[in-house]
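Let's sit down with a protein and look at its sequence and fold side by side. Go ahead whenever you are ready, and we will take it from there.
>
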Amino acid sequence: MPIFEFQAKKPDGSTFTGTVDAPNEQSVVEQLLSRKYYPLSVEIQAKKIGSDFNVAFLNRVKIKDLVIFSRQLAVMSEATVPLVQSLRILVDQTENPKLKEVIADLADEVDGGSKFSQALSAHSKIFSNFFISMIRSGETSGRLDEVLNYLADQQEKDYDLISKVKGAMIYPIFIIVTLIAVGFLMMIFVVPKLTSILTDTGTELPLPTKILIALSGFTQQFWWAIILGSVILVVVLKIFLKRPQVKRQWDLLLLKLPIFGKLFQRIYLVRVTRSIVTLVQGGVPLPQALEITADVVGNKVYKDLILETKKEVDDGNPLASVFLRSKEVPVMVSQMMSLGEETGRLDQVLEKVTSFYSREIDNMVENLVSLIEPLIMVVMGIAVGGMVSAIILPMYNLASGF
């Protein structure tokens, strides 16, 4: 985004100069006028270093950025600040350069007469269908400020959940990656020097030592093939996962994992129930809420389940009918859905379910961390012990021969 140098007059008549990031001169003028400054001159100064290299990875908008944007917009909406002015203020307060540019564009579109939801639709790679539909429902019902609060609460809860799971996984992932890296380097540089002493003696080596020497020789000679093969495997897996049937089998496998399966199931269920609650409370009709939830759940098994539920609801059948038949949904969730429909308090009942499973996820994450740490120590002990025994055992046999 270019940098503009401007000269403006304050309400008291004094003039001052400054610089501002903006997509164009008109945006600079509008920002100054929104602060009650009268612009005298606006000139482009320079472009930020690296602005010509618009790398998507570096300029991506993170979940945290959207959470902050939603909450700030909700607060200003509650304070009855006009939408266009709120967006202009957020342009200055947003640190992410990509999101800053998008918000400036949103402000220009809304100021030009477009609906906020229409302006958001032009940036569907950043704002999800869930986000856009919530805003559209708020515009239709005239409750945009309430919807913004629902949306901000939903995103903050999702962000907290993701952060907890990621935080719990950082330590074990770091240990595993470090172990693999150290083992790889030892196989290339350390083990060959130790095993060369044993092979020079000409004595019969035990089977573990032969296996270690073979692995070390292969790694030393074909290390590039191992790295290249790993990269190719990841790329091929990503390509195959784009196929619906493969994606479904992969997602089903995640749910069946011995340790993590139940955790993944709870995470997806919370995402489903919380999304439905937020959309229904925001005024979105139930069939449309189910369709949007299917897009944001992130698991093909549950996506197919929700889309099948939508068909049942369109045909006049109860919401819980498909969930009651599914093995991937706990009986409690299905029964609570059925109860919510019968009493006409579906959103309140699902909110209770969401709260219950959110607490269960917290407990499972804590227990998982407690379980993984000793498990990693056991794996480390077996790996190190196996490598040491493969080297020490033939040395002991050689010493016993004298």
User: Anything to note?
Assistant: The mean pLDDT is 83. The chain has three domains: 2-47, 63-156, 167-402. The longest helix spans residues 144-201.
